Amino acid sequence: MAAPKTLAEVLEALPEEERIILTLSYLRGMTAGQIASLLHVPEKSVEAVIASGKARLTAELGL
Fold first, then answer.
1. Which CB contacts under 8 angstroms, 24+ apart, belong to 19-27?
2. Domain parsing of the chain, residue ranges
3. Which of 16, 24, 32, 49 is most buried, judged by most C-beta within 10 A?
């Protein structure tokens, strides 16, 4: 049986944009609006990445 994945391992496996958005949101505490402004992307896109990323992290970490 494989060892459980760490958060760092799961984040490293994500596409760069998704990893950046999730890091800014969850580890830096930025809002979707702040992230959208910083990255020059629509806020709805950031919100969608956060929602799908949260689901992916939860599944990958077995939470």
1. 21/46, 21/49, 21/50, 21/53, 22/49, 22/50, 22/53, 22/54, 22/57, 25/50
2. 7-61
3. 49
- DSSP H helical ranges for 1-63: 7-13, 16-22, 32-39, 43-61
CATH architecture of 7-61: Orthogonal Bundle (1.10)
Q: How far is 7 from 47, CA to CA, in rounded Å?
A: 20
* Lowest model confidence (mean pLDDT) among 1-10, 22-31, 49-58: 1-10
- What average pLDDT score do residues 35-56 get? 96
pLDDT given for residue 41 in this prediction: 97
